[in-house]
Design goal:
This protein has 413 residues and is an alpha+beta fold. The protein folds into two domains: 190 residues, FAD/NAD(P)-binding domain (3-Layer(bba) Sandwich); 136 residues, D-Amino Acid Oxidase, subunit A, domain 2 (D-Amino Acid Oxidase, Chain A, domain 2, 2-Layer Sandwich), CATH 3.30.9. It is 28% helix and 24% strand. Strands 5, 6, 7, 14, 15, 16, 17, 18 and 19 form a nine-stranded mixed β-sheet that branches. Strands 9-2-1-13-21-20 form a six-stranded mixed β-sheet, sandwiched between helices. Helix 1 links the parallel strand 1 and strand 2. Keywords: FAD, Flavoprotein, Oxidoreductase. This is Glycerol-3-phosphate dehydrogenase.
């Protein structure tokens, strides 16, 4: 919790302490807005902290979602500049096996070039110089600027920066009710660490997969279609680049390096309740089996840990596109159109594009509040970004440790 004196009448209340919520708070605070952030758990306790931790280059989406791919490569470059110890510059390989469609590989490469994502085509022998244990039937390889992001550190750095510019942060402060009067949110009752009522001028709903539940408290409808996905971390020392299977997105097509472990993932299964869903063994087994098609040694590697995450997907977009992995775009829903003038929900998106989502949301909020200030988050390095020890201390203070990077946080020299 922030050491700043409690404010029960902030200009902006941000609901959700994941990457987008904390990123929005940082952005607003840098623009001089008095902002308070609340989360029902510790920071990073939702989707952000339960991902596979891939810093997307955009290559995964290039042939199907040109705009999304362009956003990824832009934000990839920004995060490499501003996020310090929250990012690992590993590079990535897209790997085509003998049975994979060669035309799809060529299409993806051409799409990457069209979007501005740098690629380098490698022959399998050259690729094995970087990854000696690649499968024997690898026939096509393309290098792209993927990387690894440690979400606990990323969110802690954003939180430190937001605090440094006046934000108040309250983990373990669940929203209990939202009062709407005369077309405006007039009060938000909080439990837990706050146990009181705040009266903001504007409310940002950045609750991720739970955004629909938060919106419903204000009599609003935000249709979410969350999907679950499993991540499996196994012992494997020394993988350099991220590995991506170069085929239509499917279960078990990403291997993410984490020191002496690798994270295998993932699945995509619709769920009705982001707090109550099956954790099926077939998902673990499929992820291991499919990833082993690229990197055979992981098939029998000891499993260190498993975790599931829930994606905050926007139902109308999922229904329109009708396919797994086709879009991970974000949506900024201005609820003035729904009769509540001082509320916005931001849903969808990817961890890689959190800063862009936050900037778009902060632009709308500042417009509504009459704040004339530009976004600065792309140019300013995050507070503590180059001090892993400070970031890891902040993770403890904010109760912000997610399972994605538990093997990394606190191990820095």
């Amino acid at each position: 919790m922030s050491d700043r004196p409690d404010s029960r009448e902030p200009e902006v209340l941000v609901i959700g302490g994941g990457a987008t919520g904390i990123g929005t708070a940082r952005d607003l605070a840098l623009r001089g807005v008095d902002v308070t952030v609340v989360d029902r758990g510790g920071l990073c306790s939702g989707t952000s902290g339960r991902s596979h931790g891939l810093l997307h280059s955009g290559a995964r989406y290039a042939e199907a979602d040109e705009r999304g791919a362009a956003e990824c490569i832009e934000e990839n470059r920004i995060l490499r500049r501003i996020a310090g110890a929250a990012i690992e510059d590993t590079g990535g390989l897209f790997v085509g096996l003998a049975d994979d469609d060669a035309d799809y590989f060529a299409e993806k490469r051409a799409a990457c070039e069209a979007v501005g994502i740098p690629t380098e085509t490698l022959d399998p022998d050259t690729a094995r110089e970087a990854v000696p244990d690649l499968a024997d039937d690898v026939e096509r390889v393309m290098r792209v600027p993927d990387g690894v992001v440690y979400p606990s550190r990323l969110i802690a750095a954003n939180a430190l920066d937001a605090e440094a510019h006046g934000a108040t942060i309250h983990p373990h402060a669940p929203v209990e009710s939202i009062t709407v009067e005369d077309g405006r949110v007039s009060a938000v009752a909080l439990g837990g660490s706050v146990d009181g009522t705040v009266r903001p001028e504007y409310v940002v709903n950045a609750a991720g997969a739970w955004a629909g539940e938060v919106a419903a408290m204000a009599g609003l409808e935000v249709e979410m279609q969350p999907t679950r996905g499993v991540m499996v971390s196994v012992e494997y020392d020394g993988l350099g680049p991220v590995l991506n299977r170069c085929r239509e997105p499917d279960d078990g097509d990403i291997v993410v390096p984490h020191g002496d472990e690798v994270v295998l993932g993932t699945t995509s299964v619709p769920v009705n309740d982001p707090d109550d869903y099956e954790q099926a063994r077939w998902e673990v087994e499929t992820s291991i089996e499919e990833c082993a098609a690229m990197l055979p040694d992981v098939a029998d590697a000891p499993v260190v840990r498993e975790w599931w995450g829930v994606r905050p997907l926007y139902a109308p977009d999922e229904a329109e596109r009708g396919g797994r992995g086709i879009s991970r775009g974000f949506f900024r829903l201005d609820h003035a159109a729904d009769g509540v003038d001082n509320a916005v929900s931001v849903v969808g998106g990817k961890l890689t594009t959190y800063r862009m989502m936050a900037a778009s949301t902060a632009d709308l909020v500042c417009d509504r509040l009459g704040v004339d200030a530009e976004c600065e988050t792309a140019e300013r390095e995050l507070v503590g970004a180059d001090d892993p020890e400070r970031l890891d201390e902040a993770i403890t203070r904010f109760d912000g440790q997610g399972p994605t990077d538990v093997d990394v946080v606190g191990t820095a020299d």
